[in-house]
Specification:
The complex is a heterodimer of chains A (about 110) and B (about 110). Chain A has about 110 residues and is an all-beta fold. In chain A, strand 7 and strand 8 form a beta hairpin. Chain A is globular and about 40 Å long. The N and C termini of chain A lie far apart (about 35 Å). Chain B has about 110 residues and is mainly β. Chain B is about 0% helix and about 50% strand. Chain B is built from no helices and eleven strands. In chain B, strands 2, 4, 5, 6, 9, 10 and 11 form a seven-stranded mixed beta sheet that branches. In chain B, a hairpin with a 6-residue loop joins strand 4 and strand 5. Chain B is globular. The chains are: A mainly beta (about 110), B mainly beta (about 110).
């Protein structure tokens, strides 16, 4: 089993739709959680950190469920510019962070 | 600098050649990471520096891979006797604190032929 698992997708959604991604992690001692966005042939960029209480940034909402060891990302009112690969990232408490393989999202007009 | 700078942007190496990839992190960032990203995969951790100290090199795939950050700023990832399986994008990231995520450079795309 991979340490961080994501559904690779692709998710194809129309503009304005709400879409949600889940990510599961295997190390119960994990302490930090992030979502990154990566556009084709570009570097990953931090989208948001994920806090235990859940957090929201505009159209994006991230949640953490420690008991079930998963994190989620919800995107409301999808825009064409949201099309990208979304990477789930888990920090183990040391220096190493583990990236998932990413979930591809295509938003269509 | 304003961002993490990596050079070269692209590198084509013949199998068996040695290569050196450079990373210039954001000024003042203590933490520096190297990742390897194969096509269609997420970045895989290679190594971590805190200032000039290499605190974790558990992700380096073989002893052909070597990284250094002698003065706690610029870092170099060296790959000796390159093999085709080394072909990937090598990403450098830096951070002022481990808590709030990293800033990545644009990466070096290495192709071994």
């Amino acid at each position: 089993r991979k340490e961080v698992e994501q559904d690779p997708g692709p998710f194809n959604v129309p503009e304005g739709a709400t879409v949600a991604f889940n990510c599961t992690y295997s190390n119960s001692a994990s302490q930090s959680f992030f979502w990154y966005r990566q556009d084709c042939r570009k570097e990953p960029k931090l989208l948001m950190s994920v806090y235990s209480s859940g957090n929201e940034d505009g159209r994006f909402t991230a949640q953490l469920n420690r008991a079930s060891q998963y994190i989620s990302l919800l995107i409301r009112d999808s825009k064409l510019s949201d099309s990208a690969t979304y990477l789930c990232v888990v920090g183990t408490g040391g220096f190493k962070t583990i990236f998932g393989a990413g979930t591809r999202l295509f938003v269509k007009a | 600098g304003a961002g993490v700078s990596q050079s070269p942007r692209y590198k084509v190496a013949k199998r068996g050649q040695d290569v050196a990839l450079r990373c210039d992190p954001i000024s003042g960032h203590v933490s520096l990471f190297w990742y390897q990203q194969a096509l269609g995969q997420g970045p895989e951790f290679l190594t971590y520096f805190q200032n000039e100290a290499q605190l974790d090199k558990s992700g380096l795939p073989s002893d052909r891979f070597f990284a250094e950050r002698p003065e706690g700023s610029v870092s170099t990832l060296k790959i000796q006797r390159t093999q085709q399986e080394d072909s990937a994008v090598y990403l450098c990231a830096s951070s002022s604190t481990l808590t709030y995520g990293y800033t990545f450079g644009s990466g070096t795309r290495l192709t071994v032929v």
